[in-house]
Amino acid sequence: MDGNNESIISGYVTDGWGLPLIFKIGISTDLINSSRLKWVVEVDARHPSNNYESLDFGTEIIINKFIALRCGAERMFLKDEDISFGAGLGLKLPLSSYLTSNFDYGFRDYNQLGYLHSFGFELSF
Fold first, then answer.
1. 8 occurs within a structural domain
2. Which of 58, 1, 52 is nearest to 27 (CA)?
3. Mean pLDDT for back-to-back runs of 10 residues, the chain (125 residues)
4. Can you say how many angstroms the Cα of residue 20 is from the centroid of all Cα atoms in its chain?
């Protein structure tokens, strides 16, 4: 091993390990799908190669194709770990016949790491 202090004897040894892989499968369905209200629920199951199995759950309610309310939880039933909850709000505002703006806000509780607020803005044409 090279360095700038030749009196220190050192060595660099590494071990091989497998890459962490996640097998994830999910299902989603529309519980209500009308012209004024849409309610979607989804569940994902995770099987990582380096941790225990867990479930994620989420739901979204869209009212008048204008406002969306979202909430969910991840890492449910994961051994020795807290569940992380989140919620959000989305607004879809048509600006003209060909231009639409979307605003999204999300809130997540990362337990020991505190709270995370996220914002998004999108223009679609």
1. no
2. 58
3. 70 81 96 96 93 93 96 85 88 92 94 90 94
4. 18
